[in-house]
Amino acid sequence: MNEHPKTGDPGHRTEVANYVAMLSSGLASMARRTGLDTLGYLLEMVRLEAENVARHPDGQSGGR
């Protein structure tokens, strides 16, 4: 990833959102495997939100 991309750039938002989704998915799995169910749930919510942002980088989610 570029160190200093434009923060308002939709492509950058999508890239960051995809990265957050990937990381939070792995962390959620780890948390659930070790019995940290609430943490796993919260990380799963992070993943879902990040995927939503990646699908709608201009902020138009349609559901809000």
Quick structural overview:
By secondary structure, the chain is mainly α. The chain has helices at residues 10-33, 37-55.
**Helicity level:** 55-70%
Largest sheet: none
User: If helices are DSSP runs of H or I spanning 4 or more residues, what is the number of helices?
Assistant: 2
Label the overall shape: elongated
User: Could you spell the SSE succession in H and E letters?
Assistant: HH
The total strand number stands at 0
The poorly predicted ranges are none
Structural class: mainly alpha
Task: Write up what this structure looks like.
The chain is mostly helical. The chain has one domain. The chain is built from 2 helices and no strands. It is elongated and about 40 Å long. The termini are far apart.
Give structural attributes.
67% helix, mainly alpha, elongated, 2 helices, 64 residues, single chain
Architecture blueprint of SSEs:
Layout (H helix, E strand, L loop, with lengths): L9 H24 L3 H19 L9
Helix pairs in contact: 1-2
